[in-house]
Specification:
Centrosomal protein involved in regulation of centriole duplication. Required to limit centriole duplication to once per cell cycle by preventing centriole reduplication. This is Centrosomal protein of 76 kDa. This protein is an alpha+beta fold. The chain contains twelve helices and 18 strands. The strands form six sheets. A seven-stranded antiparallel β-sheet has the order 12-11-10-9-13-14-15, with helices on one face. Strand 1 and strand 2 (about 25-35) form a beta hairpin. Helix 2 (about 85-120) runs antiparallel to helix 6 and helix 3 (about 160-165) runs antiparallel to helix 5 (about 200-210). It is globular.
């Protein structure tokens, strides 16, 4: 058991995240609060009650969201307690130390930026992002948003980690009035609690997970076509292979540099990735700005040791404000939570609900519904193959599925199938989305001779309430010329 003095030196706050969940399971981030819990060290009973004012997030970060009354209990109670003055003095010293570190880093960053601009005039227009606002409107160095994050046994490989991150929803911070995009980089805990965020949130989480798997990973800041600002992830192999990871889709792209000095008619590789320019890269220890003549991705070299191509910040300066345990960095992220769904039960429930909706929809059209349970079961292998392909990038099992369908559909009959993918398991929302597709509507509303319908659902559960839901509607009917 640590004594009170030792516990006083633990400056990591308790991160409280308040979310709102509506009837359709949509989540909204309401507040994010960092609680200094150490007032309990002065309580003789090891118990204390406090009230904290919770502020909003983003554009509402100065508006009160509510007051939270809390009771803090310390188990087991300390044999000796500290006076409130000692705790207040310690907190004051930490704030002074934090302010001084932030001041020194800001002075360094300004000097580093001036030197970067002096290299060439074109550097002024490059996307070099040193600071970013979090959900509370606090400016933090971008390196502080990345941590080495290990997922235990919840994620088995870097590619599965990329699939997990891509299943978290995309949502941009709301903007009040005009003026373009509202900046809001979320802390990892706030992002995971609400299960959605912008491309920056996805990229910092994926980079953190790839670092946990031992890869040399960096977040890239640049643009997509039409000069749209974008953030993605890059890994460098020991053989100098550069791989881009799109955190919104889990797609991977190999970087092949184009030689700008090659003869005009010489064959050059055509970029397959959707990125146009790159201004800087960073992770939890490094920050590097692109000082090459062109910031076009296909022309860039990623030799970070070449100081004429990449201008690096001092790792010591970055570590002073971003290293784990420093008073200026975000608190450590707790371990990822396991899946909240039981896949088989969730699959069965959603499938039953979709069958009911199909029957009711066809009844409204004056059509009877006859289900083919065997055909429904045959669809399972296709759904498993789709998810495997999203995880690994390789397709397998298609031959067996096609053979099984041929056997399940008699001669003279026509088969039609429509697979679709969701990030939720709300049956009515899913069915409404499916009917907006003319292909699915044609299957669900199929008319003809000897019509048999099939539907199969597979729910794949991932950490933190994320899920991949695959649904396939199918029908078979006798062809009449």
């Amino acid at each position: 058991m640590a004594d009170a003095t030792t516990m006083l030196s633990i400056c990591d706050p308790v991160h409280l995240v308040l979310i709102k969940r509506d009837t359709s399971s949509e989540t909204t981030l309401v507040s994010s609060y960092f609680l200094d819990w150490r007032t309990v060290l002065s309580s003789p009973s090891g118990k204390t009650s406090i009230a904290v004012e919770l502020l909003g997030v983003g554009v509402e970060c100065k508006v009160t969201a509510g007051v939270l009354n809390m009771s803090l209990d310390l188990y087991p109670p300390l044999s000796e307690i500290l006076s409130p003055d000692i705790i207040t003095t310690q907190q004051s010293l930490e704030r002074q130390k934090t302010a001084e570190k932030e001041r020194l880093f800001l002075v360094y960053a300004k000097q580093w930026w001036r030197e970067f601009l002096e290299i060439r005039q074109a550097n002024q227009s490059k996307l070099v992002k040193i600071f970013a606002q979090d959900e509370n409107g606090v400016n933090r160095p971008v390196c502080s948003y990345v941590r080495v994050l290990r997922a235990g046994r919840l994620l088995e490989s870097p590619r599965q980690a990329a699939r997990f991150v891509s299943l978290l929803g995309l949502e941009k911070a709301p903007v009040v009035g005009g003026g373009g995009k509202q900046e809001q980089w979320c802390s990892l805990l706030a992002f995971l609690c609400r299960n959605k965020g912008d491309c920056e949130d996805h990229a910092t989480l994926l980079c953190s997970l790839l670092l946990g798997f031992g890869l040399d990973a960096y977040v890239c800041v640049g643009t997509k076509p039409k000069s749209l600002a974008h953030t993605w992830v890059m890994t460098r192999g020991t053989d100098s292979t550069i791989t881009f990871w799109e955190s919104l889709t889990a797609h991977r792209y190999l970087h092949q540099a184009i030689d700008p000095d090659a003869p005009p008619l010489a064959p050059q590789p055509r970029p397959s990735y959707p990125y146009r320019t790159i201004g800087c890269v960073f992770n939890h220890r490094s920050f590097l700005a692109n000082c090459q003549p062109s910031d076009a991705v296909e022309l860039c070299s990623f030799d970070f040791h070449n100081q004429s191509q990449w201008k690096a910040m001092s790792e010591e300066a970055v570590g002073s404000v971003c290293s784990p345990g420093s008073t200026t960095s975000l608190p450590p992220l707790p371990p990822l939570c396991g899946p909240s769904l039981e896949p088989s039960a969730a699959s069965n429930q959603l499938e039953l609900e979709l069958r009911y909706l199909v029957v009711e929809h066809r009844k409204d059209l004056g059509l009877a519904t006859v289900w083919d349970d065997h055909l429904s079961y045959v669809l399972s292998s296709a759904l498993a193959a789709y998810e495997l392909e999203r995880c690994t990038g390789t397709s397998c099992g298609n031959e067996e599925f096609q053979d099984a369908v041929r056997r399940a559909v008699p001669d003279g009959h026509t088969f039609k199938g429509f697979p679709i993918h969701f990030l939720h398991h709300n049956a009515r929302r899913a069915f409404a989305t499916c009917l907006r597709s003319p292909f699915c509507d044609e299957i669900v509303c199929c008319r003809g001779d000897h019509v048999r319908l099939a539907v199969r659902v597979r729910v794949f559960a991932y950490p933190e309430s994320a899920c991949a839901v695959w649904v396939m509607f199918a029908c078979k009917y006798r062809s009449v010329l």
